[in-house]
Amino acid sequence: MDVTALLxxxxxxxxxxxxxxxxxxxxxxxxxxxxxxxxxxxHLVELGALxxxxxLTTDPPAHHLVGRDIVLRHTLHAVNHREQALVACMVxxxxxxxxxxxxxxxLALGKKGQREALRLAAIVRVADGLDExxxxxxxxxxxxxxxxxxxxxxxxPHAVSDGTRxxxxxxxxxxxxxxxxxxxxxxxxxxxxxxxxxxxxxxxxDGAATLGEPGEAEAPSLAPWYAAPEVALAxxxxxxxxxxxxxxxxxxxxxxxxxxxxxxxxxxxxxxxLRATLRLLAPVxxxxxxxxxxxxxxxxxxxxxxxxxxxVLLADLQARAASLGEPLAPALEALVAALREExxxxxAALVAVCASADHAAFLHAFAxxxxxxxxxxxxxxxRDLGGSTLWRHYEALRAHDRDGLPTDDAALHAMRxxxxxxxxxxxxxxxxxxxxxxxxxxxxxAFQDHLGTLxxxxxxxxxxxxxxxxxxxxxxxxxYLALREEERLQLTAALPARWQKLNSGSYxxxxxxxxxxx
Length: 518
Fold this sequence. Notes:
It contains 22 helices and three strands. The protein has helices at about 5-10, 15-35, 40-50, 65-75, 80-90, 105, 110-130, 160-170, 170-175, 185-190, 235-255, 260-280, 285-320, 320-325, 330-355, 355-370, 380-400, 410-430, 430-435, 435-465, 475-500, 505-515; strands at about 140-145, 150-155, 180-185. Helix 2 (about 15-35) packs across helix 7 (about 110-130) and helix 18 runs antiparallel to helix 20 (about 435-465).
């Protein structure tokens, strides 16, 4: 697709886009020799600058990520697949703090491509900052080496504010080019205004790299293209997989940095979303790819689960400490210490999985797959498969009710899994279904959480089994499991009422209404 047509399709402010592109080209030309930038990349910088705000009219707060998806969605004129990934990275990195290891389009590139992506993105970030005022009045007069840095001489009525923003967005520039940027109003402009002949150098204000983007909130909104029932299921799937992969990578980053429990929970949720989405995309993705990626994600999910299960148990032990009574305090303390040691071991194993070569290879291969249309069947639309997929998963959940709900732990756990799968279907099509999907999800979540608490008791029994016979911990284990058994009886008695909300005619009519929308 021609870039002008793309800008028109997504209602981009073309005056701002063109000015940022001109500034980016001026920057590129000024430093190409200094940093040995290939001339062949000049047109890529222009494309990245022109398209940097292509997602703004769809989702202002996340327009850098939506813009990335738009770039990956369309076949750009005279751009090959590798170059398209470079442009997507420039769009993804043009705002917010740049964390390249969270970006699927970046991970899909080789080491050389990744280096190129960061260098080109650094130029686009600064160019975008130079039109912070969105007036297209600031121009780049000269780029001058000064005392281990580069000084941008700027002209225009908004040169000071635009220069300040450009310097704030030069954080990536300083990293990849190993040279900071400063900015100053050009001498010729200062003289014309009767100011001092010595330019005021603009440094980087504290925290400036995280400033918001001017004018974003005022941008008109387009409905997300991936929300249309006519969109290819594969296209919707790739958008969601990139979203879930970023969450997984962000959680991994935190997990490897400290021992906190919340990142573990976030990581486990991300693995579930990824596996569920892959399973639902099986009709439009190669079987071998789904199988290989699911196996890799399951490996990290299991490692995260070993930590998370102990976090849940430790939190519940703490919450029930008063109910266990003061005489059991020594035994409880010994039990908690033993579980914390198990958790430390499990956390170390999880970090090792995240840092392994196998995991890195998976991330690269997976990023390549979800950043390109190859290996996908792009013909089936959401409307072709969405309704049948939704109803099939609901029927799978109802099949567990055979004139009554199951009573044994394994069967209830299987029912919980099918409930989750139905929820994931609803979430997969959430953008298409709109707010009405939320009403179908609420009773499903309540039922799933109910079964989840029952399952937590079963997991607790398994984790506490090794400590049930030890003299130091056995009294606490026995008393705690007795409390969990009382809870299990209460939850089991209340389960049919929860289920009835999902098994009712009104709920089925609600689902049929959603299917009609698809």
